[in-house]
Amino acid sequence: MGWRVFLSVFSNDLAIDLGTANTLVYAKGKGIVVCEPSIVAVNQKTGKVEAVGRAAKEMLGRTPGNIVAIKPMQDGVIADFEHTEKMLDYFIKTAHNRSLGVRPRIVIGVPSEITQVEKRAVRDSAYRAKATEVFLVEQAMAAAIGAGLPIMEPTGNMIMEIGGGTTEVAVISMAGIVYSRTVKVAGNEMDEAITQYIKRKHNLLVGERTAEQVKIRIGSAYPLEEELTMEIKGRDLVDGIPKTITVTDSEIREALSEVVSTIVDAARVALEQTPPELSADIVDRGIVISGGGSMLRNLDKRLREETGLPVSVADDPLTSVVIGIGRMLSDIGLLRKVSIE
């Protein structure tokens, strides 16, 4: 098949990182065309989708009773089939500038421990959103390709993809996954831990968007050089009135300690389960972390401290999965090697 023909066939094809927190879409030849929260706002009276993505996230916790903001993806898999389909449809149309009649081939990133039923749900959603062909690729593999790891070589590469719903740990060699594990603890659990901590310690109820802001601005996994503080607003559980308090980075670190420990343990278990020859490679190369959760301050330091290995954060952690899947659009040989049945 000549390159020219091949390019024309693959020109409206899309790579999709269907994440619990965010969905990213990469269009061949254009790069990333969609990067939006995986949220759909639905009017319960009419069943109509009011907003998708960023616009829907703005509505979280602020909508009247008849409009609900739904997160159709939970723990990296589809929890709400119907709304995932609507969301995918919307993002695919956005990627193609609303042109109807475009029937792309789609490559989607999925967690490594996904069940057959969950795989079928992802495939069906994509087919209903007008895909002609659907390929599934493990997110850890895609993240490794996106982070530029030499996955084709017979050497051990260890990647940790810390997303919104899941943390994927994998050891990859010769374009195959030697060891992989999915832990359902990641960015969303961090937000939840912050909400619970503030409720317990300060009797203050904060929304999930506030908790996420706290994590981004002052969250850390290992002591910082200078103290960070942040003012947060919420509802006082004693008086029931709005109130503002100030929290410090050390408090938030304490709030996150359990979640961070779970993530660190996942790395440790992966190292214990890796064949010795590949372990030797990992000692030299270290661990690469990617995904939104890897942006938590000093998480790399904490992992370095606990494993004694070099740890580096991927160049653009949020997009490494979608960039990796995107590369496969122009390398069909690689796609055939790494896609899962």
Quick structural overview:
This protein is α+β, with helices and mostly antiparallel strands. It has a 6-stranded mixed sheet with strand order 3-2-1-9-10-19, with helices on both faces. It has a 5-stranded mixed sheet with strand order 13-12-11-17-18. Strands 5-4-6 form a 3-stranded antiparallel sheet. The protein has 2 domains: 3-142 and 320-340, Nucleotidyltransferase, domain 5 (2-Layer Sandwich), CATH 3.30.420; 149-314, ATPase, nucleotide binding domain (Nucleotidyltransferase, domain 5, 2-Layer Sandwich), CATH 3.30.420.40.
SSE topology sketch:
Elements: H1 3-9, E1 14-18, E2 22-27, E3 31-37, E4 40-43, E5 49-52, H2 54-58, E6 67-70, E7 73-74, E8 77-78, H3 81-95, E9 105-110, H4 116-128, E10 133-138, H5 139-146, E11 157-162, E12 167-173, E13 176-183, H6 187-202, E14 204-205, H7 208-218, E15 229-236, E16 242-248, H8 249-273, H9 276-285, E17 287-290, H10 299-307, E18 311-313, H11 320-329, H12 332-338, E19 339-340
Parallel strand pairs: 1-9, 9-10, 11-17, 17-18
Antiparallel strand pairs: 1-2, 2-3, 4-5, 4-6, 7-8, 10-19, 11-12, 12-13, 14-15, 15-16
